Amino acid sequence: MNGTAPVRRAIWLASFALLLALAGAALWRLNARSAAPTGPVEELRFAVNAEYVGSCPVLAAHGQGYFAREGIHALLQPYSSGKASMQAVLQGRADLGTVSDIPVVLASLQNQSVVIIASIFEAERDHGIVGRLDRGVSTPASLKGKRIGVTLGTSGQFTLDAFLNRQKLMPAEVTLRNYTPDQLAGALARGEVDAAAGWEPFLTGMTHAIGGKAAIFYGEDVYAGLFNVAGTGDYVRSHPATIRKVLRALLAGARFCRDEPDAARALFSTASASEAARLQAAWHGYQFGIVLDQGLLLALEDEARWAIKNRLAGNGDMPNFLDAVYLDGLEAVAPSAVTVIH
């Protein structure tokens, strides 16, 4: 017994020392991942539709320090639509912006070099139309002859046109009035329009603006909303290292939005109580992911045909939308997330 006790003690001490060493190594790796970068910090201007749930990966990458971890000092510029964010990018006021697919299509038709670096969000039930029951809007077919508010050149207009087409209504059978997204609720409440088309959270705002007089029709059967991050071709292709950093931060941001729904919803701190409740109920239907999917190209081509038919932009030539997608960045950091055929 006396001879074995020192041996057991030596074995115990050696095991304890090994555990300490392993714990120290694990702690060092954790600190290395979360520590601030040792290189220079790069400033990046990011135009963001900060009230739209699709921006969650960007807001999380900023709020949770994922941009900072990559050496990016992101300056978020708030806009009320992807169209406005796209204009900021094209005018040189921002480097990257959150945008739906429609503004990218319209820019491409006007020979403006815009490229998507990733799709970050997809949802079906977040676009639709709110009508006033007291103006006779009770069914989709009753939109005929009505004045409809919409933000022209956005996914709201595309959804509206596709919705009307589903009802066998021609665009000429309604009167469109152009408003910014945050003006739609007021226009509907004042009776300037009989209905208004848009996306959340503005649909909820419109519904509450007219109280119990609202009829709402969702566009999930005609448009699945894609939300993307895009920049000019010149900026994106001349900053490949920056784009890879941004994408790594967005991958972490999307994971946060999926795995931490309560904390992610708190990023939208300005939401009203009703909007917060709607977000909680709808969150399970949202798809947060950093991808470049073949379906994106098909959607861009579909929307380009719609824009050409309605003479919204360009000379009628169909662009090659492979030129509007930047594959190198995401292929470098998450190759399995790229399914575009090229």
Can you offer a commentary on this structure?
With 342 residues, this protein is α/β, with parallel strands linked by helices. It has 2 domains: 42-124 and 224-337, Periplasmic binding protein-like II (D-Maltodextrin-Binding Protein, domain 2); 127-218, D-Maltodextrin-Binding Protein, domain 2 (3-Layer(aba) Sandwich). Helices cover 44% and strands 19% of the residues. It contains 14 helices and 11 strands. It has helices at residues 4-34, 56-63, 66-69, 82-90, 101-109, 155-166, 184-190, 202-209, 233-238, 240-259, 261-265, 273-282, 294-309, 328-333; strands at residues 42-48, 72-78, 96-100, 114-123, 127-132, 147-150, 175-178, 195-199, 214-218, 225-232, 287-291. The strands form 2 sheets. A 6-stranded mixed β-sheet has the order 2-1-3-10-4-11, with helices on both faces. A 5-stranded mixed β-sheet has the order 7-6-8-5-9, with helices on both faces. Helix 6 links the parallel strand 6 (147-150) and strand 7 (175-178). Helix 7 (184-190) packs parallel to helix 8 (202-209). The chain is globular and about 60 Å long. Mean pLDDT is 87; it is low at 1-35.
Ordered list of secondary-structure elements with their pairings:
Blueprint lengths: L3 H31 L7 E7 L7 H8 L2 H4 L2 E7 L3 H9 L5 E5 H9 L4 E10 L3 E6 L14 E4 L4 H12 L8 E4 L5 H7 L4 E5 L2 H8 L4 E5 L6 E8 H6 L1 H20 L1 H5 L7 H10 L4 E5 L2 H16 L18 H6 L9
Parallel strand pairs: 1-2, 1-3, 6-7, 6-8
Antiparallel strand pairs: 3-10, 4-10, 4-11, 5-8, 5-9
Helix pairs in contact: 2-10, 5-13, 7-8
Overall number of domains = 2
Shape assignment: globular
Radius of gyration: 24 Å
Name of the CATH first level of the largest domain: Alpha Beta
Average pLDDT number: 87
| Regions with little confidence, pLDDT below 50 for 5+ residues | 1-35
Structural class: alpha/beta
CATH topology tier name of the largest domain: D-Maltodextrin-Binding Protein, domain 2
CATH architecture of the largest domain: 3-Layer(aba) Sandwich
Question: What percent strand?
Answer: 15-25%
> Helix count, per DSSP?
14
Kindly report the spatial arrangement of strands forming the biggest sheet: 2-1-3-10-4-11
N-to-C SSE string, H for helix and E for strand: HEHHEHEHEEEHEHEHEEHHHHEHH
- Determine the fraction of residues in helical runs and give it as a percent range: 40-55%
Q: What about the largest sheet?
A: 6 strands, mixed
The strand count comes to 11
